[in-house]
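Can you make up a protein sequence with its C-alpha cells?

===
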Amino acid sequence: MPEIMPPEYMGYDRTIAVFSPDGRLFQVEYAKEAVKRGTTSLGIVFKDGVLLATVKSTASLIVTTSLEKIFQIDDHAGAVAAGLLADARVLANQARVKAQVHKITYEEPIDIWGVARTIGDRMQISTLYAGLRPFGVSFLIGGVDKTGSHIIESDPSGMLYEWQAYAIGRGGAIANKIFKQKWKFNMSEHEAIALALDIISKTEKERKGDAIDIAIVYKSTGKFKKLSEDDLKRAK
C-alpha cells in the first residue's frame, strides 16, 4: 500500500521549492515513483564495452520503433530510460546538442561524464523553482571514452552515480539482486547479453517473445550499435 501522508505534511507537496520539516522534497520522491512504474532498463559494463537493454512495447497495432527508450547520444554514447518517455526524449535531445557543440568547439568527442552532467544538471534545475516539476524519468548513460567504459545513472533529483551494472524501472530491485550475484569483472559480450536476457525474462514476465532492445558501445571501435533480432539470435 502507498504511504499515507500525515496531515501536517500535506502542504509540502504542492510546490517543488519547499522542503518538508524533515528535509524532504516530496515532488522529487513522486518523480522517483514514476520511474518505478517504467519498464525495466539496465546497463552492464563488460570486457569489450557497455551494454544497454530494455523492453519493447508490444501493444496491439503500435509501431514499436515509435517508442524510443534507448537513445543514441553520440557515436560513442547512448542512454536508456525508465519513466516518462516524453521527458526522456527532451533530455536526450539536449544531451545530443551538447555532444555536438562540444565536438565542434573542442574537436574531440565529449566524455561520458560530460553527457551525464548535461542531463543531471538539467534535471536538478527542475527541483529549484516554483512552477516547475521534476522530470519523471531516470537514465542509464553508457559509453566509452579515453578513460574507459562507463555506466552512469541520473535520477529525478539530478544526482549521478556510476555503476558497473545497474537496473532502473519496475524490475530494478530484482535485477540489481541478480547483478550482485552474477555480474563479474571482464565478462564477455556473450555473457553480458545472456545476463541481460535473463534479467529481462525474470522482471518483465508479460513481455511477448523477443520484445527486447539491446544496444552496445564497443571499446574497440568506440561506436554505438543497436542489435537486430538476427544479432540477438546469434548471441544466444
